[in-house]
Design brief:
alpha+beta; Phosphatase 2c, domain 1; 2 domains; 4-stranded antiparallel β-sheet; 3-stranded antiparallel β-sheet; 22% strand
């Protein structure tokens, strides 16, 4: 909540109403049990899902629960703060009931931050994990509509991990699959595995360009792609050339 207030107080954001959901996990290793204690927190509707392996089966364990204005406890707080839930949104505006930023709904100011219409107070879920499990963190674009459920995305990811140990590649494949299934929301995803990743580390690939979509209507994607390449020191053409080289290398291996 202090981070949220620092964001709201920052000079560059004082006149903006930007906002975001957020998730985070603290992982604490216990050498005695050889397990990780996972302290999962969320603000909004991004999701953390633990894939727990039992035998050859992966089970999806929800580690976060969406903060929606229509939830009974969320609605009570919103209405107690003088707000309303209209069209499943806070004051008819925001589809989340907890978020970073969104200053126009962090009211009334005379209430403690946790009691305002929209708050950045997180909820916590604690789970244990072993080296056979993995954690999947993603924003709501992965789950938009009927794109994926918690269970189906864990099954999809676990099947891909049986084919490759390249978790960056699997993350990229998840996003492309969401596009194929019709997601039109912004998307980000992360896979966390609980074992020594030394062999995975490579110094020679700091920047790995993903697929390029040149279709009309993808302007925001193209702008983001170009900015991502520029931040890594590449022009768009350099990035596309590197993409071709990487694809050619994979084809040779196959």
């Amino acid at each position: 909540m202090k981070t949220d207030q620092d964001f709201l107080d920052a000079d560059q954001f004082r006149n903006k109403d930007d906002g975001s959901a957020g998730i985070f996990t603290l992982a604490i290793y216990d050498e005695t049990t050889q397990k990780y204690k996972l302290i999962n927190a969320n603000i909004g509707d991004s999701r953390t899902v633990l894939s727990r392996k039992t035998g050859d089966t992966y089970t999806a364990i929800a580690c976060t629960f969406d903060h929606k204005p229509t939830n009974e406890l969320e609605r009570k707080r919103i209405e107690a703060a003088g707000g309303s839930v209209q069209l499943s949104r806070v004051d008819g505006q925001l589809a989340l009931s907890r978020a970073f930023g969104d200053r126009m709904l962090k009211h009334p100011m005379n209430l403690p931050p946790e009691d305002r219409k929209v708050t950045s107070k997180p909820d916590f879920v604690v789970e244990d994990a072993t080296k056979d499990d993995f954690l999947f963190l993603a924003c709501d674009g992965i789950y938009e509509g009927d794109v994926f459920s918690r269970e189906s995305v864990i099954k999809w990811v676990s099947d891909k991990l049986a084919e490759t140990d390249d978790i960056a590649l699997v993350c990229a494949q998840v996003l492309d699959e969401c596009l194929k299934r019709g997601s039109r929301d912004n998307m980000s995803a992360m896979i966390i595995q609980f074992f020594d990743g030394t062999s995975y580390h490579r110094d020679d690939l700091n920047y790995v360009p993903g697929p390029w979509h040149a279709e009309e209507g993808d302007n925001k994607f193209q702008e983001a792609y170009i900015k991502d390449a520029k931040d890594a020191g590449f022009s768009l053409q350099d990035a596309l050339n590197l993409l071709k080289q990487n694809e050619a290398s994979k084809a040779k291996v196959t």
